[in-house]
Amino acid sequence: MKKSLLALALMGAFSGAALAQSSVTVYGLVDMGVVRDDNGAATNSTKYSLDSGNQSGSRLGFKGTEDLGNGLKANFVLEMGLKADTGASDGTTFGRQAFVGLSGDFGAVNFGRQKSLTYVASESIDPFAVGLAGNMNRLFSTVTRVDNAAIYTTPNMSGFSAAALFGFGEKAGDNSKSSVRSLAGTYNAGPVFASVVYEKAYDATLSFNPLLTSAMGVRTEKTLVGGSYDFSVVKAHAAFEQLKGVSPATITTAEKEEKANIYMVGVTVPVGAGAFLADYTKFTNKTAGVTDANAQQYALGYTYNLSKRTNLYTSYSYTKNDSNSSVNVYSVDAKGASVANFGKSDKLFNVGIRHTF
After folding, report:
1. Cβ contact 31:303 at 8 Å
2. Are strands 160-167 and 145-153 parallel, antiparallel or unpaired?
3. Mean per-residue pLDDT for 93-113?
4. Confidence of residue 44 (pLDDT cuts 50, 70, 90)
């Protein structure tokens, strides 16, 4: 009897040690709000809706880590998007993130579907954290996630870190086709956050050139530079992106290359348990032969924390397009396809609640 009790005690001790070295966390977020969108496309273009994911995408996720000893850890994340307004899945299963990797003194390396380096930087640069009506990526050209991605991130060195991404195109006979390559450098210490990211994507799609007669695959090159500085009473934000798209040689010379510069300046003003948000974003089309194709977005927002996990929000943005620009404005044709509406304006308003768990 004593031996049996001793054996059970030893098994319990070893089991506890194993559990202490490995952990899995279930987490999530539910975001719901009322939205009014007037894209100015035509008569009766205003739409009211109850939408999921206005400030942050609603989600359910699982993340875990296992201590392998000597400072080495195995890590994984599986995260799926949810449409809280209908209960349906938002996109593919675990389409938000799905990766596994190792971390240690060398940094971290992960493999799977992951956030792009430009999107990671934008989350910290944008006063709206790439959400709400003021999301700077409504004008910036940012791929949010990359399939088949391998990402290496260096350890933090006195605030400095770097990252490299390679997204496999998985096309036989052409390793460049549909691939993504990216490099990022970041400084994050004290009141300062600054980041520079370069990204090259093959067979992507650009649509801001009004000279184009049809959608086409292009090689895009992006350079994003931005950051923020926290003065305590106000936090200042700024970003610049240079965008270039080189089209296939099969089209005419006049349509061959697209260029744009995009700028953003913004502020976060904390007030008690809440914060006021504001930004101004400008899209400047630099494509040869293209005129009157710029766009501007003005945005205001406010968030109020009811607790550490629950907050209320509201935001408004106004997008103004030149006569040859159609940013954030669209209509739907008889077949259900989106149709650009050049020169129109967009007015977007939302109010809602977000809870994390």
Report:
1. no
2. antiparallel
3. 97
4. low
